[in-house]
């Protein structure tokens, strides 16, 4: 696998789209100061996944975008693309079948980076996984910048080991091992949390079981209460129906009596009219008829008295009818009160029965002691 070209657009000092072609055996970028050598190295590091702006000599990732000059306006996006020649199939992995591999990264002013492999959008990890063990990477030994030779010469054994492991292709497996260990740690933590949750749910299950038993007892008691209420209402309904029938019979009897009195009153009124006519005829007669007139007057007085009695009786019957209506309402109220008193008396009777048994027991004990 060989780097064939580098394309920069809007990256640092490369405002315009610029393509650098690398022929066989090109291993270095040289030139006068200020020509952009370090920016080329930064571009290679950046497109291969460098996430630290400090490593790219900037304060933030947006600093890699061309900021403009006195004669050029700033651009809104930076893009870098690396192309690798894989004619001899040295890449390995899923992309080994491709004769050419294009890796591209672009960033907008909002700081959001996007990665592409052969034109298809991908993750940063997909880019870094391709180059693991090949010596290529954003901070690998394959990219040597100014001052790096001195760091290699003065490197400590553990630092030198990192370069050697990368060259030997061991770093790929160490990364996989670290990821696996992290995954195992997360799995262990998740299992621990699941055990805690299971213990908590087990404790809640006992509480829910007790609550379920209490709810069942409550429903049974509620059903018994409903049955008792139905029986009480049925008894009250029967009592009310019986009293209603009795009142109906009494009202019918009073109605018949009222009709009879009304008929008698009509007869008396008719007789009174007849007597009045007779009385008038007697007045028109002479003195010999005085005795008959007195008798007629007496009879008229009797009839008037009888009429008054009948009217009084009629009024009494009317009053009796009204009183019966009132008694009906009062009886209904007394019935409800009697039911409440009956319940109270029943409770008192049970209490007195218990006290009576206790007193009889005490009396027997005293008798035995005597």
From TrEMBL:
Keyword Methyltransferase in annotation: no
Boundaries of every RecF/RecN/SMC N-terminal domain copy: 3-138
InterPro entries found in the cross-reference section: P-loop_NTPase (IPR027417), RecF/RecN/SMC_N (IPR003395)
Record's keyword annotation contains Coiled coil: yes
Pfam families reported in the protein's UniProt record: SMC_N (PF02463)
Protein name in the entry: AAA family ATPase
Record's keyword terms, sorted: Coiled coil
Matching SUPFAM superfamilies: P-loop containing nucleoside triphosphate hydrolases
Coiled-coil ranges from the UniProt annotation: 184-238, 296-369
Organism domain of life: Bacteria
UniProt cross-references to Gene3D superfamilies, sorted A to Z: P-loop containing nucleotide triphosphate hydrolases
